[in-house]
Amino acid sequence: MNPLVNQDHTHTDKLSVLIPVYNEEKTASEIITRVLALGAVVKEIIIVDDGSTDRTAEILRARVANEPKCHFHAMPKNGGKTSAIRKALELATGEIIIIQDADLEYDPAEIPDVIAPILNGFADVAFGSRFLVRKAARVLYFRHYLANMLLTFLSNLLTNRNMTDIETCYKSFRAEVIKPLKLTSKGFGMEVEITALICKTKARTYEVPISYYGRSYEEGKKIDFMDGVAALWYIGYYNLVKPWFGSARRYVREVNVALEKRAAVEVSA
User: For the whole model, what pTM was predicted?
Assistant: First the structure.
């Protein structure tokens, strides 16, 4: 039996699922249904509509109206994924937090596998990797694959970690690791920012293989070439410049103290 796979079904009511959404009227309702299907492990679903211009907000309001676990917040205008996650983190109250995109490229049925290392006490952070050991993965853009590999490689050079997929959507955390982080990047920059600053802490980080049901641009894929260029800049900034700021040092100290306290409690229990 793999000790990293969650075999204990007593871990209930701990998870906050953060769903940033922008112009996803075709999939918004379905993603809520799939996350709710996870059952007792889910404490709450925090949905942040990032200024959608289609019927997404209307569909979501109707879908969650009678779902006590679901909390919907509409941003006044589009500010990018980082802005939506920043707001969702303010609202989240779970002990464990995971990010779930609304476009069905990632299957919520695999969330229990992603968070299992945290639930079972091995990890403080767990990323779902599309490249660690391939499960189901749609064959799409080779250049996107190369870009992901390049960005992860450059990040690893600066963090001294052996990650395989820093651009993954599925990032899960103990609340005390992610909530103190005040995100300052824009657009999709949070993927690099989170990775860089968490790697400055003592958080134990794992990767878990996941499936990836990617979309084509014709089907609504949003990330483009300029997002990759911005990610290169973010890798340099958040690894080499931001750690010198007082806010970053405070974040690292706060997380390390929280993790040390948790470890002391677990040893004494």
Answer: 0.89
